[in-house]
Structures are given as C-alpha cells and as structure tokens.
Amino acid sequence: MTSRRVPRAVAIITGDELLRGFIQDANSGFLADQLRDMGVELAEVRIVGDDFDSIGTAIADTTRGPLAADLIILSGGLGPTHDDRTSEAVALAVGRELVVDEAALELVGARVRAFGRMRTPEEVATFTPGNRKQASLPRGATWVDPLGTAPGYVLTSEELTFVVLPGPPPELRHAWKGVRATAELQAVLARTAPAHERLLRMWGVPESAASRTLDATGHDDSDARRVTICARDGEVEISVRGTDVASVDALVDGLTTEFGPAVFAVDDHRSVVEFIADELRARGWMLATCESCTGGQLGSALTEVAGSSAWYEGGLVTYSYASKTLLAGVPATLIASDGAVSESVARAMAEGVRATLGVDVGVGITGIAGPGGGTEAKPVGTVHLAVATPAGIVHRQIRVPGDRSTVRRRSSHVALHLLRESLRDA
Length: 426
Known about the structure:
By secondary structure, the chain is of the alpha/beta class. The protein has 16 helices and 17 strands.
C-alpha cells in the first residue's frame, strides 16, 4: 500500500447490542473528531455484530482495493467472554498468532483483584481464563494502559495500522490517549500533509441556500480545499479545510461577505450559550427565563455552562394559565382575550419574569408542543418567543414541524439565538 498525502481511516464498531438497539453508538463521533484534528480522513464508519465472520469481513473490505484504508480502528470485543473475538479477527487478518503478553496479564489480574471480583483461591481460578484471553494480543502489538481490564493496542502490518480499543466509551477514550502516543500511530501522522481549517457559522440560512451559494463559487472538493456543510436546528456550519491556505482563506472570506449578517461566528467554536454568557458578563446583566411549552429546557441549556450563576438568576416554568398569572404576572384578562399561545402573552411573560426576579433580561416562551391542542389558526408547533432587555422587547413567532420532543428542542434553540441577537443589538 502506498502512502497518501491524507491518510484514510475506517472505524469498525462492534457489538450485537448496537445492532439490536439496546444502546447507541457513542464512539464514532469521538473518533471522527479526534481524527479530523490529526489530519486523518475518516472515510467510513461500519457497525457490525460480535460474530467472528462479520468482524473479519469488515476488516477485509477495508484492506483491499484502490480505496483501502491506512488506519483501521476497531472498538469492542476485547472482553473475557466467548463473544469477544476482535483480537482473533485482527490476528487472522495480519497473519499473526495470538500470544499472551505477560505484562498485560499481570496488569489485568491486578485490575480484576482491585475491583474486588475475587476473594478466595477458587474465585481466582475462575477468572484466570478470562484474564488470559484479555491479555492475548496479536504478536507484535503494542498495548496501552487500560482504564478497566481490556488493554487497547496498536499494531502495524506493512503500511497498514490497526488501532484496537475497548467498547465502553470511557475506556475507549482513555485508551485512545495512550494509542496516540505510540510510535506506530505517530508514523501514520507523519504522512499527513499540514491542513488548514476554517469554520463559518450561520443562523437562519437554509442548508439548500448555503449549498447553492457554494456551487456558484465553482468550488470542487480536493485535498487542496474541501468543504463540509452541516445543518442542525436552524444553524448551518461550513467547514473549509485543505492544504492550500490561500484558497481556503479566499473561499471563507467570500462566503462571509455573501452571507452577511447571517454569519454569527467565524473560526469561533463557542457554543451559543457561551456567546450569551459573554455578552451578559460584558454588560454586567442578569438573565431570567419564563417557559411554558419547553418546560424548562431553555433554563437547562443555559446552565450547562459552568459559572452560569454569575449571569443567570433563575427561571419559571409556568405551564398552566394560573401559574402564568401568579408567578409571572401575566394578566388573566390578556390570556382570556388573546390566548396563552400568543405574541402578547409571550411578551408579558418576558416582562413579567424580568420584573419578578429583578433582572435586566427576561425571556418568554409559550407554544403548542402537541400532539394535541392545535387548532386551524394555531396548529401544533406554533410557538411565540420574546426577549425583554433594557433596549426593548423583541418577539418572534415560529412554526416547528415534528413531534413533541422536536418542537420543544427546536423552540429552545431558536430562543437561544433570539436572545443572542437581542443582546448583540441591545
């Protein structure tokens, strides 16, 4: 296999429990993020069962042909039981025997004893076969200190490098740190070309519009300049990366000009909540929220940031008509005349929580999350949001398609951006 300017990786995630829906894959996203930072292209993620043939076939598919990978990462199947067969499959693929690494065996045994799993000589004997299985590695593998009892390892055969990691996410992330420091993985990284990456973040631009604008520039993906467009909950991120620094910068500058005010961040990875926090801290302002259909999700998002007590006073969840009046001071006559889901009530909620908690900024959210409760005039997904600041009140009405969970989540996200924009303009 010849070296490439941009090494390609394939991740093979093993586990019957993933295919049966008992748990969600939590490893491929982490690996993708790590590989991107290292300058390695993650070409494919494949999820397979625990059986030996499936793992072997997945390995074989990624080691042959013009698109063969330089780096194969496997997770899972390193335990002591009969269905943990990843190391067997790797050993067969590289034509090496499995051998017990005595140092690994000693460490595995010590970990098992430390976890209190054996107390008598008879119990020690029952764990011995499993310990030996976990310490059996393909000849020539370099193993790394495990968080649990399954050592991850790295193995190079010709120009193909295998990284084999335990399946539980905390154990995989711990092992990954050790693997990154190995000579084998450093040799892969030595083949990477220096990459330059820029990030453009927009709000309120449809993904299709972003794609059309990009197409109009005549851009064509290559190692010199590659573009990824990602849309989620109303945000669009355009990542531009490549080895041609001038070309990458020119495209980002052009797109920034083209999209104008919709661009809220360039090369800035702060979360939306962090933008809000920084704006509030800069002004010395305090924030409070009053939520109905979102049930406290906005407050929860805001308090994900450490130190939020310095700028977030608290929130009210006013689900009933009575609580809107009692806690937020929304006039009952207003609810009766305009309805709880209305611009006037959202504004009153924002002003009310601002007055009740004595803060500088108040946010009000009221809507119909469904599945019932909608009308022809106000269908499910109708949500009114308002932000009250010393500069005045800003209101927005949205119609969110989707189920109850989607309406609540997206409404909270829109509220965050409405708050960010209100603080920027205040």
